[in-house]
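Protocol step 4 of 5: obtain the predicted structure for the target chain.
Materials: sequence only (see below). No template structures provided, no constraints applied. The aim of this step is simply to have a reference model before the mutagenesis design in step 5. Sequence pasted as it appears in the construct record:
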Amino acid sequence: MTRYSGWKLFKEGLRGHKGWAQAWRTPKLKPEYDAVIVGGGGHGLATAYYLAKNHKITNVAVIEKGWLGGGNTGRNTTVIRSNYFYPESADLYDMSVRLYEGLSKDLNYNIMFSQRGMIVTAHSEPEMEMAARQVNAMHLNGVDAEFLDAKQVKRAEPALNTRSDMRYPIHGGVLQKRAGTGRHDAVAWGFARAADQLGVDIIQNCEVTDVILEGGRCAGVVTSLGEVRASMVGAAAAGHSSTIAKMAGFELPIESYALQAFVSEPLKPVLKTVVLCPPFGTYVSQSDKGGLVIGGGLDRVPSYGQRGNLPMQEAVLSGLAEMMPSLAKVKLLRHWGGIVDVTPDSSPIIGPSGVDGLYVNCGWGTGGFKAIPVGGYLLAHVMATGTHHNVSRPFDLTRFISGRLVDESAASGIAH
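Step 4 output (structure tokens):
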């Protein structure tokens, strides 16, 4: 990784940090590219990076309506995990964890991936049975997992309420040690800088207003800065994927919802891992700055608004107070909402859209951040080769016609 001496950092501080070079260029939009990626969040930037790195397609534009990483990439709780049940999901998300494990070195940029582990608690004997089945499934799928009893959960996270008279007593849980958290803006900036160095144009403040269709084929996009032609277009627009689809004349089987999260005032270390307690609908981790990063379920009202509602705030925060009573008086600094696109089976859509030349990466629901590397890697593969990678094939759009769904609603409902 790039390292700077203490003297250089000190010198830059004295002159207001004006001597640093830009991390990526601010190019003008060209009228034609080999590929255009709609969406300048993590998935779009990763797609452009892997197109350039793995497939040597460097004449690429990433077009972002706002600022780089200003959508869901900067509006999430940064959990990275692969504790899924079905083999298809395990292959997908564990590939992403493996990519994350080498990403700082690959991008020459510290993404601050902290593999602190994640515990999902179980609160009854039936839930313990399901937890044991999940551990067995994860082992069969080649993913690390440990089955914990109540004492082991308490030992791992002393702040948890393990009283027998609580509303949902903790019986045990599942631990994935390779899970953890990353830094959301570092992931976006790392991919942006690396893609830029390979020749990719990153165009911010440029809104896509239409899709160019010629003879039933996608030939480019219309933007607020003019038309852009391309032999292939990839849409990685998260909650606005349905908007891009309508421009191209088709519908995606997704609904967009708001998902909100919270950050508390900084505290001394109180949590070692990410903790999810499903009955309370709340999960929490502690950032490197000391703030608690708190999340919960979807606001079940379809919306494109980047904000939440009061009932869900009450549900999530009251859940935290019961999970960990010692944190009940902690003050919140801020909260925010992201727009997530949810499919009927709570699994993503990766691959051809049905319109020749247009490819989609969407439907990640509440789990898009942890899948940024794999989402970009797989979309780049199918765009460059015209065929699916073995890992992305089960997540093709046609599964909603064939009925071969990958129903991960239990694993992907809130723990992201």
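Step 4 remarks: The chain is about 30% helix and 25% strand. The two ends are 28 Å apart (CA to CA).
Proceed to step 5.
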